[in-house]
Amino acid sequence: MSVHLYLANNSVRNTTISCDSLGIHYTVSKAEKIVTLSRWDKMINSDVVVGEFELPFFKKDRIKVGPNGEWQLMRDYFDKPGLFTCSKAFTSNNGTKYIWKDHWGYLIMTHPGDKEPLIKYHHNTSGSSYLEVLDFSTITGLDTILLTFLIAERKKRDYEAAAVAAAAS
């Protein structure tokens, strides 16, 4: 049985990601050039920042993980999965290694070296998009999984837009 985490809209900079049946609710917001991911914590009845990232045009991309995290370059945060790949390998807040990769036009998350998806992103431009959680054990690492998903999807969209612009010229 899978779990669906629904995105309120098609944006990866201003949206909510939620699963009401599990009480999961994240908010993605952009202020200035920084995208912030926060999680609703019912114990304190407030949002908790789980991470932030910045993808500036003329500077180096950077990320801050956790409410008290330090800013670091993304190239230092993500493991290098190999040459000539857009994949994003990382270690989640539950200590497990994962990798986001493009699979026939949509993102999937796997363990490094595995082909079997743990999470699939179903992108729908005219309706509700959602992340399908196929392995429930990933829920414990959801804070960094969602943060890295937002980065991987933003980078994928930027790459696709650049490819379309290059083909048109």
TrEMBL record:
Domain DUF6593: 10-158
Domain of life: Eukaryota
Pfam families found in the cross-reference section: DUF6593
InterPro entries with a match to the protein in the record: DUF6593 (IPR046528)
The protein, known as: DUF6593 domain-containing protein
